[in-house]
Design goal:
By secondary structure, the protein is α+β, with helices and mostly antiparallel strands. Helix content is 40%, strand content 26%. It is built from 13 helices and 16 strands. The strands form three sheets. A six-stranded antiparallel beta sheet has the order 3-2-1-6-5-4, sandwiched between helices. A five-stranded antiparallel beta sheet has the order 8-7-11-10-9, sandwiched between helices.
């Protein structure tokens, strides 16, 4: 038993109590006369290889062993011994399953879980090469041949795996996808010789299904569960007249893998937005420090404008970092932007009114571009459209028609002559970003009654992003 303990300690995460239970099971097996005609093994889950590892072998007392060489310390691989892996995974018995030994011989196995504290810690395996004895225990299924030929061939057109079991839990039909699936899982031999309890890929037994369908009067049962490296969606349907159970298995492995990749990507993008925001805020802090140290009025103005522009971008990245799905509405972005502008510009008497379609959702690049454009337009209005004591409003309207966005920013300020007014950096930024970044159209009209900035552009898919 020393080797058994050593292998468990080196290859598993089993606790001392678990290993003691496995050793006790091995000791009891020596005295069990029911095992006299079998090669008896104990396997555990090898954390290094993710396969089953043979840690103990008891040779038959009444006949020749099936094994010529020692196999303790060798692996029982999934492709050769699916029943071993199934029982380790589900904690359910696996009976009379065909397997392949480490020496390349076909054998039949019955596998029982070894448990401790309600968890499966290993398996006890009985092996025999007496195929005739095993097959004699399988119920004759010839009575179902007509039923299969008459109706069930249609199931071969399904993508999903389909198996049908009789009132005793014996499989009597499986379609081609089911054949491929179970071969991939390591099953050998004719699937129609197996019982439900040997083929269940979740944690249900035939006894449980009988209770569910006949006692609780359920007509179906659905479960989604991991099995080895796969994920299966399994539906069991009961047909009361024939007392048959149809099992439909859909392989969800690739779908789940893509979902996991998408969630991982979303979390990474969220973290990137958060870090960009922090870096931009650090730059703003440096600009403000420089602003306090300079005596030049013009330099102060340039530094203030630069800080405002960088903060507009930082605020949008902050907003994007709070949405793990990457979906942020234009309305939410504008609300966030204007709230921060009102605080930083500290101008009383000027109201900002929003009328934005809540369904407008832009991709990251368009959202950041628009935040900078709106920051410039609103800041210009605050600085130039109103006298110091004048009250007024700035209204932002955004509507969507199909995939086209029509955005209007208007104020009721004093206006300016668009033909003769000196173009400042802010206006150059607005025009460049609208035409180059948004591939849109900018129209500016102004009079004594106020100024209108109309921007029209095509809304790109949220997953699409142009090069910066």
């Amino acid at each position: 038993m020393k080797l058994l303990q050593q292998l468990c300690e080196e290859h598993t995460k089993l606790e001392c109590g678990d290993i003691a239970e496995i050793i006790a099971t091995a000791q009891k097996s020596k005295d069990n006369q029911k095992y006299a005609n079998f090669d008896v093994f104990i396997d555990v889950y090898d954390e290094r290889t993710h396969e089953a590892l043979v840690v103990w072998h008891l040779r038959p007392k009444k006949k020749q062993s099936l094994y010529e060489k020692e196999v303790v310390g060798k692996l029982a691989k999934l492709k050769d011994e699916p029943g071993v892996h199934r029982t380790l995974q589900t904690g359910s018995d696996s009976r009379r399953l065909l397997a392949m030994t480490q020496e390349g011989k076909k054998v039949f196995q019955t596998i029982y879980p070894i448990r401790n504290n309600k968890k499966t810690i290993g398996v006890l395996i009985l092996e025999s090469d007496n195929e005739e004895e095993i097959l004699n225990e399988v119920q004759d299924i010839s009575a179902f041949d007509v039923f299969i030929d008459g109706e069930l061939h249609y199931y071969d057109q399904f993508v999903e795996s389909i198996l049908i079991y009789d009132e005793n839990g014996q499989c009597f039909y499986h379609n081609h996808p089911a054949e491929k699936l179970y071969r991939k899982l390591g099953y050998k031999g004719n699937l129609n010789t197996y019982h439900y309890d040997n083929m269940s890929l979740d944690y249900t037994t035939f006894e449980y299904l009988q209770y569910l369908f006949t006692v609780k009067n359920e007509t179906s049962e659905v479960s989604e569960n991991p099995y080895q490296d796969f994920t299966f969606l399994t539906k069991k349907i009961w047909f009361p007249k024939s007392n048959h159970i149809l099992v439909l298995i859909e392989d969800k492995t690739e779908e789940k893998r893509k979902e996991l990749e998408l969630r991982t990507k979303e979390v990474m993008i969220q973290e990137i937005h958060h870090r960009i925001k922090n870096n931009l805020q650090s730059i703003v802090s440096l600009l403000r420090l420089q602003e306090r140290r300079t005596n030049s009025v013009e330099a102060k103005k340039v530094l203030q404008d630069s800080s405002s522009r960088i903060l507009a971008i930082a605020q949008t990245h902050q907003l994007l970092s709070q949405h793990i799905d990457g979906i942020v509405s234009l309305k939410e972005m504008v609300e966030n932007l204007t709230r921060n502008l009102l605080y930083s510009l500290a101008r009383e008497g000027i109201k900002i009114v929003l009328d934005i379609d809540e369904e407008i959702v832009l991709n990251t690049e368009q959202m950041i571009t628009l935040s900078l454009i709106l920051n410039e337009i609103i800041a210009n209005a605050y600085e130039h459209a109103f006298d110091e004591k004048q009250e007024g409003f700035i209204k932002i309207t955004a509507k969507k028609k199909r995939n086209k966005i029509d955005l209007l920013v208007k104020d009721n300020g004093k206006g300016f002559d668009t033909k003769t007014a000196k173009r400042n950096l802010g206006m150059n930024i607005i025009e460049m970003y609208v035409t180059e970044k948004l591939s849109g159209k900018l129209e500016v009209t102004s009079s004594a009654n106020g100024t209108h900035n109309r921007i029209q552009f095509i809304m790109e898919d949220k997953e699409t992003s142009k090069d910066a």
